[in-house]
Automatic annotation (TrEMBL):
InterPro entries: AAA+_ATPase, Nuc-triphosphatase_THEP1, P-loop_NTPase. It comes from the Eukaryota. Residues 5-180 form the AAA+ ATPase domain. This is AAA+ ATPase domain-containing protein.
Length: 204
């Protein structure tokens, strides 16, 4: 297990391994401990009839939801079809920015929602190819990692064959604990992540 003394936690792992589920469980525990948290997570969208995946939504921790990406066959307008894409998915950058950016920027712009220690937990799920089409998001994440008010729990993809420069930048930060999640370890890692976040919150 990674050492203590670091401010932020990055979860990485193969698609579908349970990184988002871990973030949700961590958030539930934080709520139970009355620890303030903000941020967003991404979730699959499936066709209600066929069960096939048709895209992804971004969901804020305060309950707002909107499209992050949809399959090319589900995108109607010419403008949308001209948007950035990852594989078979067209990314709705504007929708993503409208929902995700406020959950990040509120931590760097004001201190109205902080813990008694002067920090708040910010959950960012995820920092991946789709999200990184937004230059505003990249800038906001950089500012967030520099904020003394933020203790960050974020997810990043495994990028061994095709590294993503910004993801590598975050993984190589000295104040980050990088944890690889597997289906066998995801449940037991929740308590480890909680401990790391609480350790960070307790440090001024």
């Amino acid at each position: 297990m990674a050492s203590r003394g670091k401010s932020h936690v990055l979860l990485t792992g193969s698609p579908g391994v349970g990184k988002t589920t871990m973030c949700k469980k961590v958030y539930e525990v934080l709520q139970g401990k009355a620890i303030q948290a903000q941020g967003f997570y991404t979730q699959e969208v499936r066709n209600s009839q066929t069960g096939s995946r048709v895209g992804f939504d971004v969901v804020t921790l305060n309950g707002q939801c909107g499209p992050l990406a949809r399959t090319k066959s589900d995108v109607q307008s010419a403008r949308a079809r001209a948007s950035p894409s990852v594989g078979n998915y067209v990314v709705d950058v504007k929708s993503f920015e409208q929902l995700a950016l406020p959950t990040i920027k509120t931590c760097t712009e004001n201190s109205t929602k902080i813990t008694p220690h002067g920090k708040t937990v910010v959950i960012v799920d995820e920092i991946g190819k789709m999200e990184l089409f937004s230059q505003s998001f990249i800038s906001a994440v950089r500012e967030l990692f520099l904020s003394p008010q933020a203790t960050i729990l974020a997810t990043v993809p495994i990028t061994k064959q095709r590294p993503i420069p910004f993801v590598e930048e975050l993984k190589n930060r000295q104040d980050v604990t990088l944890i690889e999640v597997t289906k066998n370890t995801r449940d037991e890692l929740v308590s480890d992540v909680i401990r790391l976040l609480e350790d960070s919150l307790a440090r001024t």
